[in-house]
Amino acid sequence: MSQVAELASNLREFVRMVGAVVLFLLRMLGQIPRLIARPRLVVEQIYNTGALSLVIVMICGMFIGMVIGLQFYDILARFGSEDAIGVGAALGLLKELGPVVTALLFAGRAGTAVASEIGLMRATDQLSAMEIMAVDPIMRVAAPRFLGGIIAMPLLVAIFIAIGLFGVQLVAVQQLGVESNSFWSQMRAAVGVDDVVDGIVKSFVFGVACSLVAVHEGFTAIPTAEGVGRATTRTVVISAVLTLILDYMLTAVML
Fold first, then answer.
1. How many whole angstroms separate alpha carbon 21 and alpha carbon 241?
2. Which of 25, 81, 139, 176 has its CA 20 to 30 A from that of 18?
3. What is the DSSP string of 65-121?
């Protein structure tokens, strides 16, 4: 009976947590019309979450693309289909690796920064001071960071894919001797609009999930040094697990 009671308690806690996150999301969505009148707040967060993540996204995109070039060449060479390396690399980056890896990098760099920043504001009573001064912290702190992350994620994914394809081309064409015209022409013929849309949808969904987790964890952090550190850790773990779960669900629906 104790195990059943513990299971029921955990289930109630999970439902309570999901309900709290949904209510928090609805509160932020309600502030978006007001943010349109103050775009500077959102632009600042696009810079903080997007532009400051460019270096790690570009470096990882380049080397992942180069690794894909080496691995795909080794596999396709066994079937005499080296020229199709561009097709496999483009589809893999567009539909899977681009959105997923960028989301994981986003959670590790931008997500932790947002969670720790908001958590520190909670620990130093800055959020409480805003409420005392009749300033809504959801409007001033949470919603701009949430919306900025949603906008920045698809842009980072596009840059990751572009740099990744350059890395594939650098290895396949320049190093391994694949015909350049065949590399690009087969890619253009095989990759369709639906493939690009799949990547855009995934990047948008991952942006919503990672940004929501980061903002909520920081906003509800326990106002202590340990609480802020725990919120930062939970941001990375929950974002990574949620990204992979959503990736499977979206892939199953798209296929």
1. 16
2. 139
3. HHHHHHHHHHHHHTTT-GGGHHHHHHHHIIIIIHHHHHHHHHIIIIIHHHHHHHHHH
Q: Distance of CA 64 to CAs 13, 93, 130, 145, 162, Å? A: 39, 9, 44, 28, 12
Six token digits for residue 2: 């104790």
Confidence of residue 1 (pLDDT cuts 50, 70, 90): low
Tokens of 62: 């380049």
- What's the predicted TM-score (pTM) here? 0.90
Instruction: Report the alpha-carbon distance of residue 232 to residue 88 in Å, rounded.
Output: 36
pLDDT at 209 over 80: yes
DSSP 158-189: HHHHHHHHHHHHIIIIIIT---HHHHHHHHHH
